[in-house]
Structures are given as C-alpha cells and as structure tokens.
Amino acid sequence: MENAKGRLITIEAGDGSGKATQTNALYDRLKREGYDVLKVEYPDYASESSALVRMYLGGDFGDRAEDVSAYGASAFFAVDRYASYQLKWKEAYERGAVILADRYTTSNMVHQAVKLQDAAEREAFLDWLWDFEFVRLELPVPDAVVFLDMPPEVSDRLIAARAKNNAARQKDIHEKDSAYLHRCHAAYSAVADKYGWARVQCSEAGEVRSIEDIHQDVYNVVKKVLGR
C-alpha cells in the first residue's frame, strides 16, 4: 500500500487510563504549534457504522466478551473504522494532516486476541487482523502507537471513581468484567512489545502520575515521529 503524506498517531490504553485526556492534550498542543491536525475516536459512536459495535458492547450478543468470537467482534469494529476513514478523515490524511486516534485497530489486537488462550491461535489472529484491516480494507497503518501503561490495580480505582461521578453511565460488557480488563493489560504489554509501540508509564509507586507529566512523555514520542 502506497504511503500517504499524513501521519497517523494512535493513543492506546486500557479502560480508565486517560486516553481521551491525553489525546485532547496532544491535539491542543499540536494545534497551538501550527500543525494541521484532526482527532478521531473509536468506536465512532456518533456514526451509524458503530451499530454492531454498540450491540456487542451493550450485551445484545451475550453478556460476556467471550460470547462473540475474536474474529466476529473484530469485523464489527473494522466496519466502523472503515466508514470513519472513508467519510471523516481520509481526505485530511492524504493532504498531509496529523491524525490523532483515540483507539484504533490496535485495540482489537488486544481486546480480541485476549480471548484466545493458545499462543499459536493468538498469533494467527493477529496476522489475520493485520491483513484484514491494513491490506484488504486498505486502512492506514499507524506511524506510531503510544501505549499508556496503567497498572490494572490503579486503573480499577480510576474506573470506580468515574462510575461514582457518573452514576447514569452504563458499563459495557468489557468494563463489567474486571478480570477480563486485567488480562487485557497483560495482552497490551505483549502486543506492545511485538509491534514496537512506545510505552509511557502512567503511574509511579502505585499512584497516578500527573496529567502534565504523562502528556510531556507522549509529546516527546510524537515529536520524534513528526520530525519538526
């Protein structure tokens, strides 16, 4: 696939790790510095293309994440990404803009691969997913993936605090299963190593680092990619 002129930067992390906060902070800083930058978020809940994703996360196909196969669930998310790319950011990417993605294909590499216990099956799935989205669907490959590494025992506290502050918000089937989220953190670490993601530590001695300190580490990674 021929490389476009733009840059795609993906922010990845488990639930409760500050992805949206850090994506917004990076977006604001790059805008101030004069970059042509666009922010996207997955799932794209504002779009009809996320209908199957919403049904899956809402428990329509089963109350547990494992009730839907890694391949089936990945197809739901891939369709949502394809529609978003074609309709919302392909033009900007091809003109040379910086695209900041709060989650991307990289999330399925973790959240769906974790359903497969056998190492060989997991590797086969990751190969299939890469081919499906980046080759068959021709979605852009990220130029950098920044993994916000928040230990699960710390993110558990953050998720609980978020739930307390927003009691009306319903947890999805991933968020309801803390054991699943803990397995996802281990999978994040393994996949980050496999694909060479940049890792930013988000806690120190069991306490969350400041938003500003985490942001500076994220910014330092991204600046190397942008090369300005």
From TrEMBL:
<keyword id="KW-0545">Nucleotide biosynthesis</keyword>
<dbReference type="GO" id="GO:0006227">
    <property type="term" value="P:dUDP biosynthetic process"/>
</dbReference>
<dbReference type="GO" id="GO:0006235">
    <property type="term" value="P:dTTP biosynthetic process"/>
</dbReference>
<comment type="function">
    <text>Phosphorylation of dTMP to form dTDP in both de novo and salvage pathways of dTTP synthesis.</text>
</comment>
<dbReference type="InterPro" id="IPR027417">
    <property type="entry name" value="P-loop_NTPase"/>
</dbReference>
<dbReference type="GO" id="GO:0004798">
    <property type="term" value="F:dTMP kinase activity"/>
</dbReference>
<keyword id="KW-0067">ATP-binding</keyword>
<dbReference type="GO" id="GO:0005829">
    <property type="term" value="C:cytosol"/>
</dbReference>
<dbReference type="Pfam" id="PF02223">
    <property type="entry name" value="Thymidylate_kin"/>
</dbReference>
<protein>
    <recommendedName>
        <fullName>Thymidylate kinase</fullName>
        <ecNumber>2.7.4.9</ecNumber>
    </recommendedName>
</protein>
<keyword id="KW-0808">Transferase</keyword>
<dbReference type="GO" id="GO:0006233">
    <property type="term" value="P:dTDP biosynthetic process"/>
</dbReference>
<comment type="similarity">
    <text>Belongs to the thymidylate kinase family.</text>
</comment>
<keyword id="KW-0547">Nucleotide-binding</keyword>
<feature type="domain" description="Thymidylate kinase-like">
    <location>
        <begin position="11"/>
        <end position="203"/>
    </location>
</feature>
<dbReference type="GO" id="GO:0005524">
    <property type="term" value="F:ATP binding"/>
</dbReference>
<dbReference type="InterPro" id="IPR039430">
    <property type="entry name" value="Thymidylate_kin-like_dom"/>
</dbReference>
<dbReference type="InterPro" id="IPR018094">
    <property type="entry name" value="Thymidylate_kinase"/>
</dbReference>
<keyword id="KW-0418">Kinase</keyword>
